[in-house]
């Protein structure tokens, strides 16, 4: 089966969050099952700089905001990818420094509407084999709002591949003005509440939901949640009416990249059969790396880790409220890595300055440190208010670092709260709180610290998580049956 993947990021070339991980893991799992994959990404500067030999597949002139824009389609084989990578090379839109979506000041690139319309137009042409490459996909799999217009362009064609659209996060709707819609000369018949119109503007995410043949999201619970007003961002009515084509398929994790028995970023390796020495060595290395004391007292104290985007979704305000309390009442230490909203960044940095012996904060994006935190911490904090799937909690389970999570989305689908019954039947793998409040979060942490002091039960909890399989094989099977429906 020929499948064209279209997205705005993919590990290891460009990644701002879990979307990048999925665009690596899923196409590889499908490739391993015999699918013939092409992955199409925008030609950001940082991406172009990583490419070796490229082949020019051809040129398109597509409509931009002010007349036609010329794009070049490149093909390359990247050492990390088992299938060809296609790139939409359009220097005026993508060859610029920094992040795929925002400028150095954290503001959305002002021409995002044009950037991702041109990207989707080029993708739609490739989906029709407009360059005569003799490669015509049977399925086009578009991801998140950046590729949301693609199913809409395809829906207008008389003969076309099947389109699947995946929602990774409904909080990002790809909203633009009616003026953008007009300037970009998008088809006027799309402009209705039944089409792409959303509160007087254009939503590229909505386009994907309306026009794709099948819509998926990244966990079964999130698929239910987004059909309700609480999680639906105003799209719950639409999603409910499209429930017949909406599927919740849990993400997998790449169990080669995230494997404590082989991870090259770690100070020592370990596995479920023998956790303690390796885990201790990683804890010590992490304390040293983060310049926290690494003496006996520190090694005996619980170390709590967090890696993630510092945005409201991730419950960072709860973390900021909980840490001072825990510093006062326990001997716990904290290692936090992330970047995001400046206000959260500043408050976290201030907290670390106030408690240099017990709190370490690194603002930024750091792949090795993310692995080292997963391995070196005793517990992983992930109190997201909503979480479409979440990969970090699965990484932490695999690394014997029980997660503390709010019961929502993919967190609810992967973490089983430790209580007498679940410890007894060996299903417990972490700690779950189900009231969206800091007091409930604190209670869950206190329960976790209590269990941490009971080594036999703790070992069992770690082993349960480490022995679970979260790899892509099962989910890839679900996607394949959806593609063939
Ligand atoms: P989301 O996609 O909402 O950000 P996920 O848990 O699905 O959340 O995925 C986040 C991914 O991004 C994980 O691979 C995580 O390790 C990585 N990540 C997030 N922030 C950072 C950071 N500051 N440094 C390194 N990796 C990070
Ligand atoms: C989004 C979600 C996250 C999910 C990731 C990959 O960024 O916030 O929960 O794991 O996409 O699907």
Task: Describe the structure in your own words.
By secondary structure, the chain is α/β, with parallel strands linked by helices. The chain folds into two domains: 2-254 and 473-484, Glycogen Phosphorylase B (Rossmann fold), CATH 3.40.50; 278-468, 3-Layer(aba) Sandwich (Rossmann fold), CATH 3.40.50. Helix content is 38%, strand content 20%. It contains 20 helices and 18 strands. It has helices at 18-32, 45-48, 91-94, 112-127, 149-155, 178-183, 204-211, 220-225, 236-241, 276-289, 296-300, 316-329, 342-354, 367-376, 392-398, 409-414, 420-424, 438-452, 455-467, 473-484; strands at residues 2-6, 36-42, 54-64, 67-76, 85-89, 139-143, 162-167, 175-176, 197-198, 201-203, 214-217, 246-248, 303-310, 333-340, 359-363, 379-382, 403-406, 431-433. The strands form three sheets. A nine-stranded mixed sheet has the order 3-4-5-2-1-6-7-11-12, sandwiched between helices. Strands 15-14-13-16-17-18 form a six-stranded parallel sheet, sandwiched between helices. Strands 8-10-9 form a three-stranded antiparallel sheet. A hairpin with an 8-residue loop joins strand 4 and strand 5. The longest helix is centred in the first third of the chain and has 16 residues, at 112-127. The protein starts with a strand and ends with a helix. Bound molecules: adenosine-5'-diphosphate and alpha-D-glucopyranose. The site of alpha-D-glucopyranose (GLC) has 14 residues, from helix 1.
């Amino acid at each position: 089966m020929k499948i064209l993947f279209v997205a705005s990021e993919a590990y290891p070339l460009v990644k701002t969050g879990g979307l990048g991980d999925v665009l690596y893991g899923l196409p590889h799992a499908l490739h391993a099952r015999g699918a013939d994959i092409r992955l199409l990404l925008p030609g950001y500067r940082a991406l172009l700089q990583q490419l070796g030999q490229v082949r020019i597949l051809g040129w398109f002139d597509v409509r931009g905001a002010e007349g036609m824009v010329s794009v070049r389609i490149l093909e390359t084989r990247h050492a990390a990818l088992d299938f060809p990578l296609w790139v939409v090379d359009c220097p005026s839109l993508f060859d610029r420094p920094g992040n795929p979506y925002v400028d150095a000041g954290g503001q959305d690139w002002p021409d995002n509407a044009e950037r991702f319309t041109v990207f989707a137009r080029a993708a739609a042409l490739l989906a029709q084999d407009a360059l005569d490459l003799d490669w015509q996909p049977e399925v086009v799999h578009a991801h998140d709002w950046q590729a949301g217009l693609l199913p809409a362009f395809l829906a207008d064609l008389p003969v076309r591949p099947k389109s699947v659209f995946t929602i990774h996060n409904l909080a990002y709707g790809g909203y633009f003005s009616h003026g953008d819609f007009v300037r970009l000369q998008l088809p006027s018949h799309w402009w209705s509440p039944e089409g792409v119109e959303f509160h007087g503007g254009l939503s590229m995410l909505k386009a994907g939901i309306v026009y794709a043949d099948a819509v998926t999201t990244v966990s079964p619970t999130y698929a239910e949640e987004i059909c309700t007003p609480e999680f639906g961002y105003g799209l719950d009515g639409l999603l409910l009416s499209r429930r017949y084509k909406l599927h919740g398929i849990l993400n997998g994790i790449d169990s080669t990249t995230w494997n404590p028995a082989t991870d090259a970023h770690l100070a020592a390796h370990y596995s479920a059969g023998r956790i303690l020495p390796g885990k201790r060595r990683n804890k010590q290395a992490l304390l040293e790396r983060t310049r926290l004391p690494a003496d006996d007292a520190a090694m005996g104290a619980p170390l709590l880790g967090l890696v993630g985007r510092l945005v409201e979704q991730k419950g960072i305000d709860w973390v900021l409220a909980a840490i001072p309390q825990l510093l006062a009442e326990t001997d716990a230490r904290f290692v936090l890595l992330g970047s995001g909203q400046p206000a959260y960044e500043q408050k976290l940095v201030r907290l670390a300055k106030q408690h240099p012996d017990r709190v370490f904060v690194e603002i930024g994006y750091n792949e090795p440190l993310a692995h080292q935190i997963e391995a070196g911490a005793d517990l992983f904090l992930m109190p997201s208010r909503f979480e479409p799937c979440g990969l970090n909690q699965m990484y932490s389970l695999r690394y014997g670092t029980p997660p503390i999570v709010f019961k929502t989305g993919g967190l609810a689908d992967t973490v089983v709260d430790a209580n007498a019954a679940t410890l007894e039947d060996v299903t417990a793998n972490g700690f779950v709180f189900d009231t969206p409040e800091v007091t409930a979060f604190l209670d869950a942490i206190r329960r976790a610290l209590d269990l941490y002091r009971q080594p036999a039960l703790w070992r069992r909890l770690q082993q349960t998580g480490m022995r679970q399989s979260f790899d892509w094989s099962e989910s890839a099977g679900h996607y394949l049956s959806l593609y063939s429906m």
